[in-house]
Amino acid sequence: MASIDAFARARRQREPVGLWLGWIAVAFIALVVGWLVAEGTTVVGLIPDPPPAPLQPALIDFNGSASTALVVSFLFAAAAWWIGRRALGLAEPPGAGAGVAIALVLAAVGVLVWVLNPFAAIVIAVPVTRGCSRR
Q1: DSSP 14-25
Q2: How many CA atoms are closer than 13 Å to the CA of 89, on its beta-carbon side?
């Protein structure tokens, strides 16, 4: 409710919240592109499939193909972010709309996680404590 109230207040003050939501969407799409490229490197055989359980650090072989896959994934994600910003014409907007946009997105993600798995929502919820008063 506080995020919706902040959004309403920002709209009354004509803060550019929509542009910041575009920034968040472009950043999310860039991360998905990087992830898909990383998954693609395992499909084409550049790196082996990841093991089902975590390995000991000494057993991890970070060779040339693994570092190449990491760099390629990063470059694709960075290119997707840069192209997305240019395609949407997103210049950095001034004002306090960024905080409102992030609060709205986090609230929406929290509700989505709560609908899918209430126990996971408890884990990702940020507890707010104001201190204990003792008598």
Answers
A1: T--HHHHHHHHH
A2: 1
pLDDT tens digits, residue range 7-56? 777 777 777 777 788 888 888 999 999 999 999 988 888 887 777 888 78
One-letter amino acid for residue 106 of the chain: L
For residue 94 the two structure tokens come to: 């001034």
| Separation of alpha carbons 26 and 81, rounded Å | 6
Environment class of 40 (CB within 10 Å of its CB; exposed 0-12, middle 13-18, buried 19+): middle
- The DSSP output letter for 96 is S
What CA–CA distance (Å, rounded) separates 32 from 76? Answer: 10
pTM over 0.85: no
